Amino acid sequence: MTPANLDWANLTFSLTPTDYNVRCTYKDGQWGPIEVSDSEYIPLHIAASCLHYGQESFEGLKAFRGKDGKVRIFRMEENAKRFIRSAEGISMQPMPVELFCEMVRKVVKLNERFIPPYGTGASLYIRPLEIGISPLVGVSPATEYMVIMLVTPVGPYFKNGFKPIKVCMSREYDRVAPKGTGSIKIGGNYAASLNAGQMAHKMGYGNMLYFDPKDKTYIDECGAANFFAIKDNTYITPGSETVLPSITNMSLEVLAEDLGMKVERRLFKVDEFKDFEECSACGTAAVCSPIGQIDDLDTGESYKFGEEGVAGPMTTALYNKLRAIQYGEEPDTHNWCEILDL
Ligand code: PLP
Ligand code: COI
Q1: Per-residue confidence at 146, pLDDT binned at 50, 70, 90?
Q2: Which of 47, 158, 213, 320 is the most exposed place for a label (fewest CB within 10 A)?
Q3: Torsional sign, CA 34, 149, 39, 112
Q4: Residues 27, 185, 274, 321: which is the catalytic one?
């Protein structure tokens, strides 16, 4: 695939091969140089700890070609910090923030021709990952690690773009354990969510909205995205220990305040759904995906939000504001974007 035959405006959230990826190995107590590869494969020992004991974490962030032609990377340091927390959460070697940022800049520059043009609604998705590569049979942390960063141009995560989706909830599935790994971004959490996600998709739902795994009472998050609701000019998002602290959600909370809304990060139950005016999923891949309907598969209750098929006004305002900052259409007053020196 070359950029010349990519249909930028109709990209989906899927893998398009690009020119290069970058890699960095931790060995003998230190991180080595950043290496550039044009291969989509890695040499791996068959006893590597990532294969047997799940020592794997990842990140997701985006680079945008702006209105002014410049390339902006959104809140890279926040991803770097979360990458450290994820590594520490599963006894892996954390990568320093500056090295992480260097790798991101390098992989974006090397694949500049795959950054979608301004106006197509697409962006370059950056996927860093870390794996334990030492051969092990006993259950213990590896001593050698590899960080790889690949990129791919992407369109919307949900195939209808910025249109309300339907999600379902069920107490039969947990994404993570109480006091477990919910608040870090490791591959195991996603493996644990595949059955629920498949079931939801087969039933025609965009995703599964999870309850908290301890009490099965409070709302947690929505597949690979956070959840927020709007009520009485207030942005409400679950203050739960088992959700991944989303950088998009964190940013939307700030934008909500900028728009004169109150922000509440707290636990809430299904009982409150009837009072919510708007609901949405949010994340790097999902951006803001308005939720028009939530079906509780266990009780048969169905909750609807706003006018059918139309995103609510506050969700739309938040989405527009975030996109405008990312595409350089509005001043980046919070200093969230790094403009790449190309
Ligand atoms: N929750 C989960 C489980 C995720 O996988 C993601 C994606 O990264 C998010 C939330 C959204 O986080 P962010 O906005 O940092 O991408
Ligand atoms: C993201 O929003 O970056 C995600 O990681 C979601 C999913 C593709 C894992």
Answers
A1: very high
A2: 47
A3: negative
A4: 185
Atom 1 of ligand 1, residue of closest alpha carbon: 225
- The mean predicted confidence, pLDDT, of the chain is 96
State the pLDDT at residue 4.
Answer: 82
Residues with CB under 6 A from ligand 1: 60, 221, 224-226, 244, 246-249, 283-284
180 CA → ligand 2 middle, Å: 19
Spell 135-149 as b/e; 16+ CB within 10 A means b. Answer: ebeeeeebebbbbbb
pLDDT band at 1 (very low <50, low <70, confident <90, very high): low
Rg (CA), the chain: 20
Share of the chain above pLDDT 90, in %: 95
4 C-alpha to center of ligand 2: Å? 27
pLDDT at 181 over 70: yes
Is the same domain home to 178 and 288? yes
How many domains does the chain fold into?
Answer: 2
Query: b/e for 49-60, b at 16 or more Cβ within 10 A?
Result: bbbebbbbbbbb
Percent of the chain residues past pLDDT 70, beyond the cut: 100
| Cα pseudo-dihedral 168, 174, 179, 185, rounded to 10 | -80
pTM: 0.97
Cα atoms in the Cβ-side hemisphere of radius 13 Å centred on 207:
24
Exposure b/e, 238-271, CB count within 10 A at least 16 = b: bebbbbbebbbbebbbebbeeeebeeeeeebebe
Whether 124 and 236 share a structural domain? no
What is the atom index within ligand 2 of the atom nearest the CA of 286? Answer: 2
Instruction: Tell me the residue range of the domain where 27 lies.
Output: 8-154
Query: Which residues are 35's β-sheet partners?
Result: 23
Six-digit token pair at 17? 């091969």
Tell me, yes or no, whether 275 lies in a domain. Answer: yes
